[in-house]
Structures are given as structure tokens and as C-alpha cells.
Amino acid sequence: MTMAKQYTTRTKASVPAAAAVGLSDVAVRFRSRKRDVTALREVSLDVAPGEFVAIVGPSGCGKSTLLKLVAGLLKPSSGKVRLGGEQVDGVRHDIGYVFQRAALLEWRSARRNILLQAEIRKMPPAQARGRTDELIRMTGLAGFEDAYPHELSGGMQQRVALCRALLHEPPVLLMDEPFGALDALTREQMNMELNRIWRETRTTVLLVTHSISEAVYLADRVVVMSPRPGTISEIIEVGLDAEREYGETLGRPEFRDAAAHIRDLLGAASAHD
Ligand SMILES: Nc1ncnc2c1ncn2[C@@H]1O[C@H](COP(=O)(O)OP(=O)(O)OP(=O)(O)O)[C@@H](O)[C@H]1O
Ligand SMILES: [Mg+2]
User: Fold this and answer.
1) Which residues contact 113 (CB under 8 A, 6 or more apart)?
2) Which fold has domain 1-95+170-268?
3) What does pTM read for this prediction?
């Protein structure tokens, strides 16, 4: 067992207007003729502007449900969800959303997949092109702009999806197991790139992951959820500098203590790392 005292538990925090994302006492119940499922209950969480928060927890504990609430794709059964101080009331098109699979259009090149975001939003073309070039550079996709999805590796496809999600400079980026389908080495590279992109853009990020090391390496705070009905068991402050060299960070006591503590909380059975 690791020492638990040094960690702060903030499961009942109030939602200040300044929070980029705020959930207060949120519950989600799914009712159907066959069964009633309480996916989330008593979930309260504030995410500060520019903060990186990772969410870990056993399968079915409501992590994707939580992101869908923030995106306005789902309504809470009770409680409040806010984005930039405003109550979420319907689908929010201003945020960025990255899913486990890149979901690219096969008949469009990498560049044109990214630009799809601009077309949907009717962004000024020159601005969209400039921003696309910048993101392609930032994510190391230069030279592959004209490649089609089947000509790209899994990691490259996920980078294209990340560029597409970041094109309109969303104030909040939601990521639902974005690197789950990648091999371990590519995943590490994507983690390093995401850390750099987050530092450059200072977008607020909510990342759902099953990897404890990914959560601790990337986040300012890690939200650990309990099995269904999902509640927040504990929020762990990672306490590392924003700029994190991968190998060096993994060897740091702050990293190891936080990872060990999260592993204890989740229990060996539910941690896939
Ligand atoms: N639209 C829906 N209708 C009915 N039940 C749902 C719906 N969406 C989710 N659920 C249920 O809510 C619970 C939480 O689902 P959710 O997808 O949020 O879990 P998760 O933590 O993301 O799991 P995983 O790690 O496997 O992706 C599950 O029991 C699921 O069956
Ligand atoms: Mg999920």
C-alpha cells in the first residue's frame, strides 16, 4: 500500500463560474423496459481552464457517459453540467472530441480530413488552411498531407483525428481512449506529442484512458472512478511540471507514487496497463 494522506480528495467541490468544465452532483440513469442502469451518481468535478484531467476507472463505470454529458450529447438525470460557466443545454459544437478509432473518411487525404472540420463550421478558408499547416507540423505529419487513410499507420490516423479535433481551437478537448488501439511504442510517442500540443495550445483536456501510466504522465489531476454506478473515488494531484520528458518522468517519485496509489485504488483486477 502507498501513503494516501498526501492526496486530496475533492468529490464534492462546488462549481465556480470560472471553471472550463463543471459538473455538480450529476447523476445519469438509463431506463429501458428490460433494465434500469445508474451509470453515474453524485459526480462533482471542476476543471480549470488549461487544465489536463485524466479519468480512469473500470469498464462500464460511466467514463464515456461523463464525456457525453460535457459534449451535450446526453442530459443528466439530475445535477448540472457547465462549460465555460454556461449550463450545457444541447449538443456543443465548439468543443473537440477524439474517439478510440480515428473515424476518417477513406476518400479524403489527411489534409482534407482535417479540413472537414472547417467545412462543417464554415471557417474562413485561408484561416483554416493556415491552421491546418500549423497542426500538421505540430503533430509530425508533414510529408503525409496528401496520403489517404489506408496509406497511414494507426498512429498517423489518430494524429489526423487529433488535428481535426483541434482545428477550430476548441476551448475544451474531450478524448475517449484515443490511443487504445495503438501499439505500446506508438502510444508513448502520441503521449509525448499530446503533452507538447497541450502545452502549446493550453486547451483544457479531459482524457479517458485505461492506462494508469498514460493518465499520470499526461494529467495535472487524475480522477479515479468506482465501479458502476460510477462515482468519483478520489482525485489525485500529480504534481509534476507541465513539460515532461517521457523516460525521465516515469522514473520520478511523483510519477511512481501517483501511479501506485491509483493502481491500489483500482485494484489489480480492473487495471489494464
Ligand atoms: N445509451 C445507453 N443506454 C443504456 N445504457 C447505457 C447507455 N450508454 C451507456 N449505458 C450504460 O451505462 C454504463 C456506463 O457506460 P459507459 O459507456 O459510460 O462506460 P465506460 O466507463 O465508458 O466503459 P468502458 O471503459 O468499457 O468504455 C454501462 O453500464 C452501460 O451499459
Ligand atoms: Mg467508454
Assistant:
1) 104, 105, 149, 160, 164
2) Rossmann fold (3.40.50)
3) 0.88
- DSSP letter assigned to residue 230: B
Please write the tens of the pLDDT for every residue from 193-221. Answer: 899 889 988 899 999 999 999 999 999 99
Largest alpha-carbon pair distance within the chain?
A: 56
Measured CA to CA, the distance from residue 189 to residue 193 in angstroms comes to: 6
Distance from the alpha carbon of residue 59 to the mean position of ligand 1, in angstroms: 8
Distance CA 61, CA 47 (A): 20
Contacts of 248 (CB under 8 A, 6+ apart): none
Residue 138 CB neighbours (<10 A): 18
Nearest Cα residue to atom 27 of ligand 1: 59
Provide the phi-psi class of 159: left if phi over 0, else alpha when psi is between -120 and 50, else beta.
alpha
Q: What's the 3-state SS for 75-104?
A: CCCEEEEEECCEECCCCCCCCEEECCCCCC
Q: Which residue out of 30, 43, 66 has the highest number of ligand 1 atoms within 8 Å of its CB and is therefore the one to mutate?
A: 30
Does the C-beta of 30 come closer than 6 Å to ligand 1? yes
Query: Could you tell me if the CB of 65 is within 6 A of ligand 1?
Result: yes
pLDDT digits (tens, 9 = 90+) for 59-92: 999 999 999 999 999 999 999 999 998 999 999 8
For residue 40, the ligand closest to its alpha carbon is 1
Beta strands in 48-171 (DSSP E): 52-56, 78-83, 86-87, 96-98
User: Which residue type does 182 have?
Assistant: L
Domain parsing of the chain, residue ranges = 1-95+170-268, 104-168
Name the DSSP letter for residue 150: G
Query: What DSSP letter does each residue of 248-270 carry, written as one string?
Result: HHHTSHHHHHHHHHHHHHH-GGG
